[in-house]
Amino acid sequence: MSRVMSQVVDEISAMWLAIELAQRGEPSPNPYVGAVALKDGKIIGRGYHRRAGADHAEIAAIKDAGEAVRGSTIVVTLEPCNHHGRTGPCTDALIEAGVSRVVIGAPDPLPHAPGASEKLRAAGIDVELSPLGEPCAHLIRDFTKAITRHIPFITLKAAASLDAKMATESGDSKWITGEAARREGHRLRSRSDGILIGAGTALADDPELTTRLVEGPSPKRFVLDRSLRLPATSKLVKTANEVPLYILHSESAPEERRLELERHGARLLSFDGSLIGALRAIAGEDIVRLLVEGGPTLHRALLELGEVDEIAAFIAPSILGGGETMEYLPPLTIPSMAEAIRLENVQTLALGRDLLIRGALPQKERS
Question: Which of 112, 154, 256, 355 falls between 20 and 30 A from 264, CA-CA?
Answer without folding.
Answer: 154
